[in-house]
Write a structure and sequence with these properties.
Distance between the termini of chain A: 55 Å
CATH superfamily of the largest domain in chain A: GAF domain
CATH architecture of the largest domain in chain A: 2-Layer Sandwich
Helix content of chain A: 40-55%
CATH class of the largest domain in chain A: Alpha Beta
Radius of gyration of chain A: 27 Å
Largest sheet of chain A: 5 strands, antiparallel
Oligomer: homodimer
Order of helices and strands of chain A: HHHEEHHHEEEEHHHEHHHEEEH
Number of helices of chain A: 13
Strand content of chain A: 15-25%
Shape of chain A: elongated
Mean pLDDT of chain A: 86
Largest interface: A-B, 34 and 35 residues
Strand order of the largest sheet of chain A: 7-3-10-9-8
Amino acid sequence: MADVLDDRKKRVLQAVIDDYITSAEPVGSRTLARKYNLGVSPATIRNEMADLEMLGYLEQIHTSSGRIPSSKGYRFYVNGLIPPTPVSDAERARIDAWYRERVRRIEEVFQETARLISQVTRNVSLVLAPQMTQAAFRCLQFLPLDDQRVIAVLMTDAGFVENKIIPMPPGAEFEDFQRMARVINRNLAGHTLQSIQRHSMTEIRDEIDDESLYEAALGIINRALDESRTERLYLGGTTEMLEQPEFHDVEKVRDTLLILEKEELVKDILHAHMGEGLEVTIGQENQDSHFKDTSLITATYHLDGQLLGTIAVLGPTRMQYAKAMSLLEFMNTNLTRIIHRLSR
Amino acid sequence: MADVLDDRKKRVLQAVIDDYITSAEPVGSRTLARKYNLGVSPATIRNEMADLEMLGYLEQIHTSSGRIPSSKGYRFYVNGLIPPTPVSDAERARIDAWYRERVRRIEEVFQETARLISQVTRNVSLVLAPQMTQAAFRCLQFLPLDDQRVIAVLMTDAGFVENKIIPMPPGAEFEDFQRMARVINRNLAGHTLQSIQRHSMTEIRDEIDDESLYEAALGIINRALDESRTERLYLGGTTEMLEQPEFHDVEKVRDTLLILEKEELVKDILHAHMGEGLEVTIGQENQDSHFKDTSLITATYHLDGQLLGTIAVLGPTRMQYAKAMSLLEFMNTNLTRIIHRLSR
DNA sequence: AGTTAGCACTCACCGGTTAGGAGTGCTAAC
DNA sequence: GTTAGCACTCCTAACCGGTGAGTGCTAACT
């Protein structure tokens, strides 16, 4: 593998990619010579570009059109050529303001994060809220609503609260609910929601005499479990997407949106990329055939070392990688901070 | 005003609209004669169409293209010509199944209703969830979370529950919160959220000695008030929209989506149409210039005679009015039922 | 009088052709 | 190794004539 590009080839490749990312047009030797002072003539650049194409870093739609970067080209760019683009102070301020202004409750964080990312990157963003299965059961309490109903409130360690209105079984007293709460709390406290399965529940069943009471408690716990099992996916920026010339064709837009609507599919894809920190998947590298000409940048974030979720940007392979990557990296740490602030 | 169309003119107008609604193509005299047995020759129909154009019910893009209905034409159609299209049993079943399968909690009703409407009508749907200002305060309760935090739970009559985690002020005991809850509940029970203003709150303030305790209680009540004041808007079917030939141009799609993203604007428009039952606004009739070639069908629904919200369909003027109208009418009554079922 | 057939006319919508331009690869000179 | 020159490719936009759907008008028919 002669994958060691000499310095000038790197400079040319970088110039091609930088230019194509902003212009979305195939870029030719003349343009490069004019806009980027590479110190050589168009003819020389042509030779270099021919070499780069031979090596697979560039592609040509047809003879006599400029070159565009291939997936391999972008890959090389992302791995080494990418210019450092820290999130500017202005942008940090904007992000802070955004959260301060819009996010009141923990549930809103994810949707707003999605909006924010798509606004800044002008691309579709995906936010996978953390699964709660690792969260610990803290306690279950009942509150009297009226003579026929009680409200069950379930809390987890991470500060998430779930509530449900339960009709009181005939003949039952509020006292009964409180007794049951004590039994349940004694048995389940500290367990992760995941580990609370039929197993622990049957033990509790034995302790509770009234069948319908037990059913009611089971209801809320199952609901909390459901909630914890189904991680939520938030999308943003489907409008931003339309600004990209790649999506000037309605067919493409529709295809992409239809995919994005298949929540399970999208979740699976994001799961596949869940790992340490930032991951960039470029065009061809995508397993899913629908994403062969889009790139996906994912970043996994942690909450209290256990819960984890993913934030991502999806866009055409011609994407502002530098900007998107640094933004995700920044949001990654930021998100943890925001959530902590809110759950206090 | 010679707006009294003779019977044949009505039949021709209806045929033109019916055909255009399904085909999206300007419709000519020959087509009409072939597909709808009007009992006359194309030439006669041509004369009738010329008359209808003169009267403003039809329009022509250019000489020698068929005619398309004008706003006035649609208006006449909606007011009198529209064929009765009750929601079919199959569709009712589908709707029922949809709710049963997807809606677990009251908060989900609105989003799912939006999805459902857009699925059936293949157009954008809008659902304005009811304002809670008319809901009555029922009670506020506190639950211990740990030694530093309590959970405040606020309930309203309609069965909506709001919760917030509150850090315990230093030196305060859980007992203090319970005492405060009693004071608050005594003072506010039965009041509508709207009527709970600084007025009633100052009275409470006098009864509560600890400043920071009072602040905490104020926090949750204000939050509930905020929640009740900001009605939520749910959108559905932005993907469906793309299927309509009217939106085969990305520019149009983007324009429309950008408008729809301006939540306040959309809410205002919906408010303007809040009234009794079904309202249809066609193309030109829309105040907002952005909607000059779209139609909006709105339906106001009531909850317990007080809370009210709106469900709506937004689409090109060429829209299946009959279907959309009957669907909204059906959903209108259905929604009330579903919400009642859930809040029990 | 109302209806219909016939006909000339309009105009969007093709398929094919052409001119222009951007860009390349190659060759030969520097 | 670099560059100027040049022939070549191929996309794009504009032009053009034929086709067809549809109209309006007129004259004939019932």
